[in-house]
Design brief:
- By secondary structure, this protein is mainly α.
- The protein folds into 2 domains: 85 residues, Endonuclease Iii, domain 2, CATH 1.10.1670; 112 residues, Orthogonal Bundle (Endonuclease III, domain 1).
- It has 12 helices and no strands.
- Helix 1 crosses helix 2.
- It starts with a helix and ends with a helix.
Length: 214
């Protein structure tokens, strides 16, 4: 995706963000290759509160359950997931809690509670409200879906710890800021707060890496 307009706006509207952009160069934020919204949400649940490597292994095992006729691993349809015995899901590595979340996702996808495939006509808040009806999907997960699956450009996930620390480093704050403060500081970034978020994540990663290298 071309973020040229976003970069111009952020550099013009905020000297702090301009300095960060000049430090790190072009934005490398990319949408996920997974185009299936149900699959993207199922993955989001699998990856919650797990190290990346462990979650990736579980996600692969989960997909392998639905390989058909010698084909490769794949995400199930909602009805297939609901028909899968708990023992198989557990063997793939899903906890009891995550099995409950996945089944609730499948039920709400199947009965139309989730407006999968129709999010393009909804505002960010409407998408969040719709997704958070699913057990295990909170505002943070919904915001990550907005950013990485729907490619929305004006999301500022103030509940994200990396973003909070990004604000600390960018604005030389003494402690983690409250949501109201982050919204205030990020007001000038509209309508490209997603891109600003990526730069805050990037800043946080660099500071963390530098500290580990000492």
């Amino acid at each position: 995706m071309n973020y040229a307009a976003a970069i111009r706006h952020l550099k013009k509207s905020d000297p702090v963000m301009r300095a960060i952009i000049e430090r790190f160069g072009r934005c490398e934020l990319a949408r996920e290759s997974e185009s299936d919204e149900f699959a993207a949400l199922a993955d989001a649940i699998i990856y919650q509160q797990l190290a990346y490597a462990a979650a990736k292994t579980i996600a692969q095992r989960f997909r392998q359950l639905y390989a058909v006729n010698g084909g490769g691993p794949r995400m199930p349809r909602p009805d297939e997931l609901l028909e899968t015995p708990a023992a198989k899901l557990r063997a793939a590595g899903l906890s009891k809690q995550k099995m409950s979340y996945m089944r609730d996702l499948a039920r709400k996808a199947g009965d139309g509670t989730l407006t999968l495939g129709r999010f393009s006509g909804m505002t960010d808040e409407q998408v969040i409200e719709n997704l958070t009806q699913v057990k295990g999907i909170g505002r943070w997960t919904a915001e990550m879906f907005l950013i990485f699956s729907l490619g929305r450009l004006d999301v500022l996930p103030v509940g994200d710890l990396g973003v909070q620390y990004g604000f600390v480093h960018a604005f030389k704050l003494r402690k983690l800021p409250k949501p109201e403060r982050m919204h205030q500081l990020g007001e000038k970034w509209k309508p490209y707060r997603t891109v600003a978020t990526w730069y805050l994540w990037r800043l946080r990663r660099e500071v963390t890496s530098a500290r580990k290298g000492k």
